Amino acid sequence: xxxxxxxxxxxxxxxxxxxxxxxxxxxxxxxxxxxxxxxxxxxxxxxxxxxxxxxxxxxxxxxxxxxxxxxxxxxxxxxxxxxxxxxxxxxxxxxxxxxxxxxxxxxxxxxxxxxxxxxxxxxxxxxxxxxxxxxxxxxxxxxxxxxxxxxxxxxxxxxxxxxxxxxxxxxxxxxxxxxxxxxxxxxxxxxxxxxxxxxxxxxxxxxxxxxxxxxxxxxxxxxxxxxxxxxxxxxxxxxxxxxxxxxxxxxxxxxxxxxxx
Length: 261
Fold this sequence. Notes:
There is one protein chain. By secondary structure, the chain is mainly α. The protein has three domains: 82 residues; 61 residues; 95 residues, Tetratricopeptide repeat domain (Serine Threonine Protein Phosphatase 5, Tetratricopeptide repeat, Alpha Horseshoe), CATH 1.25.40. The chain has 14 helices and no strands.
């Protein structure tokens, strides 16, 4: 039996016969507040062996994750608990969503990309996600796939995001990610088309700056230097790092002057 399932069975039905204190969860809250991690962990594990209330069990799990992360910064120590939580709350989409998101992010940070992809794939299949959550799930899945060098799979994931029945405004970050990946693969015209679509959709200031920079870069690669310079200048004040944009503008101006001679 997998380690996580053994752990879940142990905590859910009880591996010991010790009597439960009157209110382990309250005592654990106090121990957490006092940063007494060993005591808090013992109390929470005992609470999870005996407690039947779903809400109290959920709080105990959350507190236990806090304790484990504080007492042991090694992220792998958290994953066994998250897998146990996933098994326990398999029929509760609202709580599964939170567990899968955390599993996805942790596995990404550990570069365990296959497991991260599994978590994000399950996440985007949940009911009740908001548009923002849906888009973020697709973006994370695509990012993991690109990290695995599964470029076609990553592009397909982003295309699926763009095909969702959501407003263009909600899907703009998927458009940007797709443009960015096309940039890395030197598909200049696709980059230009996607960035123009983003700019036409009324993005926020930061995304307008990022998309303007990519559009300018793509236009320069397409040999349209004057148009590229215009885009860089338009995006300059909205780009997150104006000094980078200033260097790019200065370089392109010098390049165009030399070409004009």
